[in-house]
Amino acid sequence: MEPDAIADFIGSRADEVPDHTLHIECPADYGSRDATIEAYAQIVERLDTQSPNARIVADEHCNTLADIEAFIAARAAHVIQVKTPDVGDLMDTARAIRAAKAAGIGAYSGGTSAETDLSARACVHVALTARASMMLAKPGMGVNEGLVIVGNEQARALAQIKSRRTH
Asked: pTM for the whole thing?
């Protein structure tokens, strides 16, 4: 549970894959939002100075827009997972993504495997509009259905944008 030891361990794993960036989601659970923010800020700071290919992704204890803003203010993550069902609605999802991006922190438009195809498609549009760094392939626990739903909706939206720009 020691932040420096966790950062050193993550950094050593990142060193084993030097051609890739290693993203670690929730490396430890400190029991509360404030304790997690304090420890993650230490881990992030150490990784920034010692392991540039290692990234911390905040998820647990980072649910509401207020939680996300607190993680951003403390620089307690390299990437924030923005989960629309937890944040509450599409507008707060966009606000959270934009806030992270404005702070130079990655924004992962996440969610849950229990969402519907309609919510997944709506989230694609929010993620594209807010310029999320990454999108979760959802819904479902498998890979194919989420990739197809999110991938098709993203391709459709980008084709519409391109078509409007040429007319």
From this structure: 0.86
- 3-state SS, residue 65: helix
Q: How many helices (H) and strands (E) does the chain have?
A: 7, 5
List 24's β-bridge partners, or say none.
56
Per-residue model confidence (pLDDT) at position 112: 78
Choosing from 83, 101, 138, 162, which is the catalytic residue? Answer: 83
86-107 exposure pattern, b = at least 16 Cβ within 10 A, e = fewer = bbeebebbbbbbebbbeeebbb
Spatial strand order of the sheet with 134-135 comes to: 22-25, 54-58, 79-83, 106-110, 134-135
Task: Give the orientation angle of helix 90-102 with respect to helix 65-74, to 10 degrees.
Answer: 0
101 is catalytic: no
CA 165 to each of CA 130, 134, 158, 161: distance values in angstroms, whole numbers, following the listed order:
19, 24, 11, 6
